[in-house]
């Protein structure tokens, strides 16, 4: 017992213990080795992993992106399309990364969105899209509220041909849908506006190409919108975007040299009743790309990937506050953002709410742009080809899409204006409109969207057709109709905004209808509209709108008072009472 082990005995015991340990390990899997994510999607994967480690469950869409990156699915998209089969939910999500949205059951087909930076197309591109829409789609297009085009009724087996055809003419739908940065908007009159502060075209173009060539700008927690407003005549609605770059003139006495800068506003998402707020940050126009990139990277790392309803950047800002968020942006940039007090910023030029309709002089002497009226954004392919030829023959070859669901033909000489007007009228369109028709905005509605509760485009045209002969409006009026809470037509910023609902009728039935709101605005009149007439049947909406407009004309403070001002100086119940007192006045018209 008191004897020590010899050297050989110690070696034997060490070997015995080692062997015993090995025997116990037989059948037991080795502990997993966690490797750090690498590659172009590393930051998104890390963000997902952090939320899972915190005990949360990823949203299905996050799982789908992780299982198969949508950009790696194109060949499978083509193979599935050839069978004519409808996509499974996870593939319907993935295909949107290529611009394709399956919109059944409203339409048993695909819709395609594009990327048209600053909303400007060449005449030959416009004509080519018309040809593709005839070959593969429904023979028409819609101008959208993001200065974009949609083509619908694309049959599954034709979908790959359509998006490849777009690429052949220099139009890229890559990332036009799902959890990506949507079409980049800019001032419709960029480079031709006599009063603009900045030409937004080069900045929108740079941002467009940065997105296309930077994988980290994809696979975001949800969609993301960026807009550049050069302070021209036509509003760009940059304050409805996640990032709004607003051209401003900084005066003497500021901590930066006097001159023109972009002022940064963030957090806009009008469908969630929020508009982008001024951060006080000003930046040289050449810095907007790197700052937008840093903002998106901070949000992508910290945005909610478990609850789709709270995945937009607004909710990170709500939780953190602007100061904390911007401090992380500065950390990402490695530099401090420059703040300038509003007292050192000159008032921005006023918008012309009818500036997107009719003939307007350009900054180039002797040239004009012509704004063309559309019925809630719709164009037939024959009209598209005719517009392309008018632009080629009489203009500078550009067709400029606007956030107001219409387009401009630019570069028209003074002498050619009458010919352009006549050519536009000859194809069933117009360059003049009533103040209410000029301000009509409507999403696709139940005609082509499964989420919509009402046929917004048809109902919008019914409202305008009802009002025009009955109520002589002498001030611009914006009527926005959106079919569901996604608010693609931005009903909360309209003078009068309608959101589609199913209106109860009897005990167990519903009919299409709207909740009607009033008093929304943008820019210097930025505000969220307030509900006034809920559960209004679609067939009753024209009369409801008429009563509101009659109340406005009868009780405005002065002939120049805007509807926005009128609606916001009255409480809802007072407005409702005034409208009801004028109901039925036009019944005999």
What does this structure look like?
By secondary structure, the protein is of the alpha+beta class. The protein is built from 17 helices and 21 strands. The strands form four sheets. Strands 6-7-8-9-10-11 form a six-stranded mixed sheet, with helices on one face. The protein has a five-stranded antiparallel sheet with strand order 1-2-5-4-14.
What is the averaged pLDDT score?
A: 93
Note the gap between the termini.
120 Å
Gyration radius from CA atoms, angstroms:
28 Å
Globally, the shape reads globular
Strand content: 15-25%
Instruction: Give start-end ranges of low-pLDDT stretches.
Output: none
Largest sheet: 6 strands, mixed
Query: Based on helices, strands and strand pairing, what is the structural class?
Result: alpha+beta
Tell me the total number of β-strands: 21
Task: Assign a percent range to the helix content.
Answer: 25-40%
Helix tally? 17
Strands side by side in the biggest sheet = 6-7-8-9-10-11
Subunit arrangement of the protein: single chain
